[in-house]
Every structure is written in C-alpha cells, then in structure tokens.
C-alpha cells in the first residue's frame, strides 16, 4: 500500500474554486476523462449538496504494466461522491476505481476549504491510498501510480484554473 498526499493553494475564494471544481470535466488538460454521468444529486435537510457521479476514463497503460497485470483494458470507471457544505464552506470529494478492483484500488479524498490565513484563497488537501494486489513488483507499481497521481493532480489544479478563467466573466 502506498499513501500519497498533497496540498495546493488557489488564489481564488472558496466559492469560485468549488464552482470550477464541480464543472472541471471536460477540460483540455484531462483528455483521459471521456465521460461524466451524474447518478444522484440532492440537497439534504441542512443545505449540503450531495453528488454521486460516474467518471469514465481512457488510460493508455504502459506495456510493462500490461505485461505484469495481464490486461489490456483501457476504459476504466471511477465512482465519485462529493458533499458541498456552504455553511462550513467545505467541499469534500471521495473517489474510488470500480474497474480492475481485483488488481488495484485507488481511494482518493480531496477537501477544499478557505485558506485559514486568507479567505480570498482556497486550500486543497488531497490524499490517495494506492494498493496493487496479487502481482509481483506491487511496491514498484504502487510507487509508479503515486507518481502518475501526483502529475495528474498538477493537471487537475491547472484544469480548475482554466475553468475559473472561463467562469470569471460570470462574476463581474
């Protein structure tokens, strides 16, 4: 098992970042996400917005990984649950792969909240727990996947910035 963590600060208020994060896909920086389906969305009795989405992704697996896991499937699915709490000003998102779970599991948690020192900025904390099962070199594969998650997180931050640049005229 490998645990990856990260923090990022957006120089935008929480409301703006949250709106962009909820509309992050599609974007030109994440072409691997080929579909997003909303399975359920509702507001609970205390005003929190709950969303359950299914993300369809297309991965180009390296030949080495294909030979180790013995699978050339590239379409994978991720379930994503998010809760936006406007009173506490938090957005928590949890996701997990639902494809190839017999070989690998990736459980990710993201929390967006106002920066504690500057309410005009937003702090994002991320954590991913990666577990490769039943194959040799699992530690190597977990480290490789953590590296990919790290690179994709940076693309995700840039995608949110891209979305914000497209949202800004709406707030003027």
UniProtKB/TrEMBL annotation:
Cellular component GO terms held in the UniProt record: mitochondrial intermembrane space
Domain PRELI/MSF1 residue range list: 1-172
InterPro entries per record: PRELI/MSF1_dom, Slowmo/Ups
Superkingdom of origin: Eukaryota
UniProt xrefs under Pfam families: PRELI
Protein name stated in the entry: PRELI domain containing 3A
Annotated organism of origin: Eptatretus burgeri (Inshore hagfish)
